[in-house]
Amino acid sequence: MANGTFVGIDEAKLWSMADALRNNMDAAEYKHVVLGLIFLKYISDAFEAKHAELEGQRSQGADPEDPDEYRAASIFWVPKEARWSHLKGNAPQPKIGTIVDEAMTAIERDNPSLKSVLPRDYSRPGLDKQRLGQLINLVSDIGLGSPADRAKDVLGRVYEYFLAQFASAEGKKGGQFYTPSHVVRILVEMLAPYKGRVYDPCCGSGGMFVSSEKFIEAHSGKLGDISIYGQESNYTTWRLAKMNLAIRGIDAQIAHGDTFHNDRHPDLKADWVMANPPFNDSDWRGELLKEDKRWVYGVPPAGNANFAWVQHFIYHLAPTGLAGFVLANGSMSSNQSGEGEIRKAIIEADLVDCMVSLPGQLFYSTQIPVCLWFLARNKRNGRFRERRGETLFIDARQMGTLVDRVHRELTDEDVAKIAGTYHAWRGDENAATYADIPGFCKWTKLDDIRKHSHVLTPGRYVGAEEIEDDGELIKDKMRRLAASLHDQTAEASKLDAAIAANLRELGYGE
Q1: What are the residue ranges spanned by the domains of the chain?
Q2: What is the 3-state secondary structure (H, E, C) of 278-298?
Q3: How many CA atoms lie within 13 A of 209 on its CB side?
Q4: Which residues of 155-194 are buried (b: 16+ CB within 10 A; e: fewer)?
Q5: Which of 354, 364, 373, 431 is the least crowded, having the fewest Cβ atoms under 10 Å away?
Q6: 268 pLDDT exceeds 90?
Q7: Are 240 and 166 in contact (CB under 8 A)?
């Protein structure tokens, strides 16, 4: 999300103030301090708003201190010792760290869905208690949980902005928990997951799910129309995901554990799979899974998990399911360790619906360019036009805008162009008419992919762009320039001959 101001809050200023309080603390550690407090402020604000409403309904038998009143409204019950007013009142005290830890413990105790999710190490000696008190005062100035603020998703937007900033501050490590929102938006806008089961087996901080809910809401759908399933192997990142979804009231089954070795949703068949797995992961212990039933298209190499992820996604797709995911560019062409044969088998099974190559510098974790794969379990399932034996290639490597020296973002226009092209090609209702655009997109038959040895790099298929310069196509301009150069060369030859004749007359020539 780009820097800006929303609902009276300058997000960049808020971040700079919070970051100034970090002092020498590592960003990975400080992340949980800040995000934990923002989460606590949110649920406390939401609680207080409901509490005030119930106070006004006492004459009708309402009890503001009855936890069930809040649970019935999908609002977390906040015991007295965890309410923000209590924390703010004690912010200047040296024992504020212990008070915050006790608040987190009390909330987990009274809200089972948050068990083992909230950070509880604010009392540790390494955390400056004066700065912690200042941070509480800073967060106190944000209105997060009132009905109006919740309707605008103020907390969600603050939380998402801080996630992005921490990912940037952490550099490569940060990319393990955060996929840039503009990349997530492409996946969500292209797949358009309106209804059904959505699954991300390497869900990081939960960005795919949040964007899916936003998509449905933006298109006037019902948020309850999708069911969310996820898994995350990193415990601290799993906690971030649980908080990220909880603050938006999104009911999701997010499990903790290694997806390959402890699949927590073994029987799930999802309508939509969206994911950004670790690129080229060599530590996935693949040698222990040689006989796994998921490897329908070939045993993935122990030294690279790319095609283990791809086959895991396919395994969990429903008969009419669609998948969209991010992979390193090497997945489109690599023939190492049997990867080429696995890719060939997936292509020959007619699962590849669309391939998109993206520019570099989109991620905090890597500067390498990446690609998006879109798979369809059944290309004649009735949702769209029949596409058997067909694949769309999109080359978006020239898109995006540099937002700083090392990071590029895809604009709203970029996202709309990429997603709109896919929708037009597959025949979405009310979509534009599809047409190949040289240098950008190409509708290709399976036989063409076979001629390219089952390589899926879009640049091989889309051809060269016909660039216009002042209304003149480059190829036409080159012809004109070549003719002009030929004329100039002829004139130069005549001039050389005249000079040589004059030199001979003066006695300098032969």
Answers
A1: 5-170, 183-462, 472-505
A2: CCCCCCCCHHHHCCCCCCCCC
A3: 33
A4: bbbbbbbbbbbbbbbbeeebbbbbbbbbbbbbbbbbbbbe
A5: 431
A6: yes
A7: no
Domain covering 5-170, topology: Ferritin (1.20.1260)
Report strand pairing: 196-200 vs 270-275. Answer: parallel
Residue 184 has which token pair?
A: 């997530």
**Cα(355)–Cα(371) distance, integer angstroms:** 7
Residue pLDDT, tens place only, 429-482:
888 999 999 999 999 999 999 999 999 999 999 987 655 444 445 555 566 656
Say whether domain 183-462 belongs to CATH 3.40.50.150: yes
pTM, 2 dp: 0.77
Sign of the torsion formed by the C-alpha atoms of 221, 227, 231 and 232: positive
Q: What percent of the chain has pLDDT over 70?
A: 80
List, as own/partner pairs, every contact residues 86-95 make where C-beta atoms lie below 8 angstroms and the sequence separation is at least 24, other chains included: 87/40, 87/136, 88/136, 88/137, 88/140, 91/132, 91/133, 91/134, 91/136, 91/137, 92/133, 93/133, 94/129, 95/123, 95/129
